[in-house]
Structure formats: structure tokens, C-alpha cells
Design goal:
266 residues; TIM Barrel; 9 helices; 8 strands; 41% helix
Length: 266
């Protein structure tokens, strides 16, 4: 029997999807099939970040159901305008009781004008303080806010983390790396028109890169319009990274998986 593409020399390549919203409504009642397909593709770990108090319990239950899934808890910047100060107390409780692999998804999003920036920054800083207290890495949502996020990270130093769906400049990438962060690359990298992003993926230190899907969002170029992203696509995303860097897929998989595992203490 010929070997599968992700099994060179009979040894399976293992991947980690460092950012997947498996609890999303688009995936209702299909999680069993999604996890099985991911595992069959070599994706052995799936990090599931919460985005608000209202889905902390859903993430916890999903990760209890599937041993391949690992929880992260946090308040996403696009949910801060209806967040309550007590949500931070609930978050603290989950961090104490559940001991997630990271605190997230947190950050800043200045792309949509009507969001309250001061409110976003308040919740971001308070969650950085929790990450410091619990010695957890953070999963960062960064959209048109790289420099402001970097400023807060310098003021509130945490145990590194992942700049999810990284789309900043080379200088910003270098600053995140200096602060102990990995850069998350996913479906956006697969588009040939994303020349700046692909150049970064090809040239920043591979030891600073992790793979992700952000499923069901940021669908790769190889999907039909309207199809949701899925964790099983991590190996195909990794193949793009391997081609951009002129490296074997198994080497890219080994290093990016090690990067994620060491950061998340897996």
C-alpha cells in the first residue's frame, strides 16, 4: 500500500492546530466527524479558544469530550462592548479550576470603527495581568492594532504566546518574537496574492512559526467559496509553508509542532 502524503517512511507526521473554534455554530453536531477527520490527517491536538464568558462552558465541555482538544479561555476584543467586569472574575475561576493551555482569545481589534477602544484596552490589560498571575501564554487577536498591543505587552510581560493570524510588518514580527511570541500562519498564507504575508512566512525563523486554521474562518485558497475551514486542513496549509521555504513537509511539521508544544507545555 502506498504511504499517505503525511507519512514519510512509514512514520506519521503530527500537527497541532493552535487556533480552532470547534464550538462554533457552523460545526453544530458535526464535531465527532471533524475531530476524526483531523486525527486521520495527522492533527493530534486542537486548541479551542473561548471568546466570551457565554462560551466558556461550551469550550470546557467540548474539550472534556475530545481528548485531542485543549481549552483556552479569554474575552475576545469584539465581545468586550457587552462584557461585564464580573466576567473577569468568572475567567479567573476557569483559570483556577481548569488550568487551560493558554489565556485567549484576547487582544485588540481596531478594524471596525464602532468598537470602544478604551473598553477593549481595559479588558486586554486586565487579562494580561491574569496571564501573568497564572503564568499562561496568551492567544492574541491582532487587527490593525499591532503597535498598541506591543506597547501593552512591553508594560505587562507575559510568558509569550501566539500572535494569531499574523498580518503585520516584518519589524512588528521581529518585536513579537523578541517578546517570546510565535507567529500563527494559516489559510491567508495560501493565497498567491498575499505576497507580503508569504514573504514573511518564507523568511522569519521557522522556530517562531506555528500553524493554525481559525476554523471555521479564514478558509484557505483551495476551498470553494463558502466552505468552512476545518482542522483537517492543517497539513495542506503546512504544505504551502514547506513550498514557500523550500523545505520538506515533514521537517516543517516537526519544527512547527515542537514550537507549539513547547509554548503550550504539551
Amino acid at each position: 500500500m502506498p504511504r499517505r502524503p503525511h507519512e514519510p517512511y512509514g512514520k506519521p507526521i503530527m500537527f497541532i492546530d493552535t487556533h480552532c473554534h470547534l464550538d462554533a455554530s457552523e460545526f453544530d453536531d458535526t464535531q465527532v466527524e471533524l475531530v476524526q477527520a483531523a486525527v486521520a490527517a495527522g492533527v493530534t491536538r486542537i486548541v479551542v479558544p473561548a471568546v466570551e464568558r457565554g462560551n466558556f462552558e461550551a469550550v470546557q465541555q467540548l474539550c472534556a469530550r475530545f481528548p485531542q482538544c485543549l481549552p483556552a479561555y479569554g474575552i475576545h476584543p469584539m465581545y468586550t462592548d457587552h462584557a461585564h467586569p464580573d466576567d473577569l472574575k468568572v475567567l479567573r475561576d476557569y483559570l483556577e479550576r481548569q488550568r487551560p493551555v493558554a489565556l485567549g482569545e484576547i487582544g485588540l481589534d481596531f478594524f471596525i470603527d464602532h468598537y470602544d477602544r478604551a473598553c477593549q484596552e481595559h479588558f486586554f490589560v486586565e487579562q494580561l495581568k491574569l496571564a501573568q498571575e497564572f503564568n499562561l501564554p496568551v492567544l492574541l487577536h491582532v487587527r490593525r492594532a499591532q503597535d498598541v498591543i506591543l506597547k501593552h505587552l512591553r508594560e505587562h510581560k507575559v510568558r509569550g504566546g501566539i500572535a494569531h493570524a499574523f498580518n503585520g510588518s516584518r519589524q512588528q514580527a521581529e518585536e513579537f518574537i523578541k517578546l517570546g511570541f510565535r507567529l500563527g500562519f494559516g489559510g491567508a498564507m495560501t493565497y498567491s496574492r498575499a505576497t507580503k504575508l508569504r514573504d514573511l512566512a518564507a523568511t522569519v525563523p521557522l522556530e517562531s512559526i506555528v500553524l493554525e486554521t481559525d476554523a471555521p474562518d479564514i478558509p484557505p485558497d483551495f476551498l470553494e467559496r463558502g466552505e468552512p475551514n476545518k482542522p483537517e486542513y492543517v497539513p495542506r496549509i503546512a504544505q504551502t509553508l514547506a513550498e514557500l521555504r523550500g523545505m520538506p513537509l515533514d521537517e516543517v511539521a516537526r519544527i512547527t509542532t515542537q514550537n507549539a508544544a513547547s509554548l503550550l507545555s504539551l
